[in-house]
Amino acid sequence: MRLTPTNTFAGNPLDRAGDRRDDPDWLAAQAADPRAQAMLLWEGRPLIEDHPDGPRLVWLPMDHARDLVPDREAFLGLWKAAPVFAVEIEGSVDPADGPVRGLGVFHEMRAAAALLPGAEAAMAGAAKSLFDWRRRHGFCAACGRASRDACGGWKRVCEACGTEHFPRVDPVVIMLAVHDGPQGPRCLLGRQSAWPAGRMSALAGFLEPGETIEEACAREIAEESGLTVTAVRYHSSQPWPFPSQLMIGLVCTVDSDQARPDQTELEAVAWLSRDEARACLAGTHPIKPPPPIAIARTLIQAWADGFDVAR
What we know:
Blueprint: H1 24-32, E1 37-42, E2 45-49, E3 56-57, E4 59-61, H2 62-68, E5 73-79, E6 82-89, E7 105-106, H3 109-115, H4 118-136, E8 147-150, E9 155-158, E10 164-165, E11 170-181, E12 184-191, E13 203-206, H5 213-225, E14 229-240, E15 245-254, E16 268-273, H6 274-282, H7 295-304
Parallel strand pairs: 1-6, 11-15
Antiparallel strand pairs: 1-2, 1-4, 2-3, 2-7, 5-6, 8-9, 9-10, 11-12, 11-13, 12-16, 14-15
Helix pairs in contact: 3-4, 6-7
């Protein structure tokens, strides 16, 4: 099986060293390694520099990064045996106007993902998810007491009751519904009112407890469009660090083309033929497609290129 990543934020090249990062002495040795380097984030935004080959993450020696921000780091893994960390700066004042002036510019993560090489976007996305989780889980969910960072940022421990907390990932099904009727095969796109004018995308929703991926796909399609799913095929997945989701990309067939937007999640729907989907992706159709970093665009492209649920 090929593991070639097809989606933005996939393809993290690091060895996460999950079997070693729970050892405080080992982690301390990694941070002290002269090869150790760290990316910088400010409130979830990575620091990016101009480079002859295009925008790149700014990497600082670990000791320099710690001088800027002590006690606010996460161990990301090993790159060819060299330790890689992330350090986050907090506060409302842009550090690019102060302590890191001249090193680069902090970009919002969606914009950064569109600029960076795939591997760097994946590493930055993982760092953002870790810091977001840590920010939201400073207190133990079991007893309410303060928890402390452990395992290089991959665990929090409550010293009052001993409960260990680990980063959570929220699974989301995102599916392109298709129907083959008298007008030929067409795919269904939906629109949320908050999106930019003309933007439409695949339907999506969170998995619920006790639900399979296929069941979640069918429920979300029924809730948002009133259609019945008859078959489901997996395409690919995408880590989505806003704040920490796993997008499970599917293509599904539905029983009819009589879609009815629920007016809660969706305000409008549209059916596109393969030619219309190609025009949408090319920017020559009135409907605007999802942005290039979104797995929804990958699904539309795959279907336009012939991806078939029955195969």
